[in-house]
Amino acid sequence: MIKKAFINALALQPLVSLGSKLYQHKVPVFMLHRMACADLGISGHSPELLRQSLSFLRTHNFNFVTIDDVARAISTQSTLPPKSVAFTIDDGYLEQVEIATNIFAEFDCPATFYVCTGFVEGDLWFWADKVHFLLNNCNDAELNKVMAVFSDVVSKSAEKSVCLSHIIEYLKTCPLDRINNVISAAAAEINLSLPVRAPNGFQATSWESLRASEKRGMMVGAHTYSHPILSNESENVSEFEIKQSTIHINEQLHNPSKVFCYPVGRQQDFSKREVAFVKRLGYTGAISSEPGAANIGDSRSLFSIPRFSYPDTKEDFIQYATWIESFKSQFRPT
Q1: CA-based nearest residue to 293, from 57, 7, 111, 74
Q2: 193, 229, 302, 318: which one has the fewest Cβ atoms less than 10 Å from its Cβ?
Q3: What are phi and psi of 308, to 5 degrees?
Q4: Residue 287, beta-bridge partner list
Q5: What gap in Å lies between CA 150 and CA 138, rounded to an integer?
Q6: Could you tell me which residues are beta bridge partners of residue 30?
Q7: At what angle do helices 140-149 and 127-136 cross, to 10 degrees?
Q8: pLDDT class for 333, splitting at 50, 70, 90?
Q9: Percentage of the chain with pLDDT > 70?
Q10: pTM higher than the cut 0.90
């Protein structure tokens, strides 16, 4: 309650306007993932909280820009309108486009959907979702068999949610071929047949839906072909992932984003090699998942633009969207 009152006090219109002038070079870029959808059993961002967040920004005269606008400003060292903010949504799930497009369009906010094109093409579904599907479809006895495959990673006594977290973190250290082989081996232990196409709750959007979203003011960008952690892959695989997704995006969309989005996007998940591939394909910038506001004055960040994970409360959103977070970050140890 104290934090809520404090944030709301600092977010009064005069203070927001003053803070924005002091930190005009800082632009918050928000990163969203799954949208909550009870009908599909999906937990994720609350549509109502997203509406409240966008309403706050509109009421306080913020300016909605695209991530391409942010990259262009960094590249040319030019300014953006006062109180600019951008939104991105990663992966390309069905409910993301269906739910979020309506909300963003309601507020004339041009969000950018970053999609894995092999997923949208129907060629694959995400390995992390396969782990969820695997653990959700085994009983206690079968769970022990699955855990035996991951005996170096998790304890047999661990709860299913803990096992899931540990398995996913372990697999993030592996190349995609290894990940798929291990998941297949675990499924074979309990005679579970993994669906070829993504089952309900894990389904991709379509190119048709993405084009319809474009017509409503959204943008679409490349997020690789199959969502590997690029730094874990060979040079050939990494280049293919970036290039193939770029080809698909350019073929299917009218005005695709010229900013690339690295999968997972932590500092260790991409390297100078990936930056070189992205530049070679003509991208004007790239985004990571490292937390922080984009710094228009820092040209070194152009191919690793930071983003804030979209938070779970309105107060946290206000903190990240306004001058408050930039002010606080000055006093954090580096």
Answers
A1: 74
A2: 193
A3: -90, 130
A4: 261, 305
A5: 15
A6: 87, 308
A7: 140
A8: low
A9: 90
A10: yes
Between CA 62 and CA 51 the distance in angstroms is 14
CA angle 38–192–163, rounded 5-degree value: 65
Which amino acid is present at 140?
D
Task: Tell me the mean pLDDT in the region 121-145.
Answer: 92
**303 three-state secondary structure:** coil
CA 80 to chain centre: 23
Is pLDDT of 1 > 90? no
Instruction: Report d(CA 301, CA 74) in Å as an integer.
Output: 8
Tokens 């500092």 belong to residue: 267
The CA–CA distances, whole Å, from 283 to 221, 243, 256, 260, 277 equal: 11, 11, 11, 7, 9
Lowest-confidence pick of 122-126, 154-158, 201-205, 270-274: 154-158
Q: What is the mean pLDDT of the chain?
A: 92
| Residues 155 and 89 placed together within one structural domain of the fold | no
DSSP code of residue 34: P
- Which residue carries 């709860």 as its tokens? 159
Could you identify the residue written with the tokens 């803070």? 19
Helix, strand or coil, per DSSP, at residue 260? strand
**pLDDT tens, 186-204?**
999 999 999 999 999 999 9
Rg, the chain, Cα only: 21
Query: Could you say which DSSP state residue 123 is in?
Result: S
Instruction: Give the range of the structural domain holding residue 38, as residue numbers without chain letter.
Output: 2-123+202-329
Same domain, 182 and 69: no
pLDDT digits (tens, 9 = 90+) for 11-68: 666 666 656 666 788 999 999 999 999 988 899 999 999 999 999 999 999 999 999 9
* Whether residues 13 and 113 fall in one domain: yes
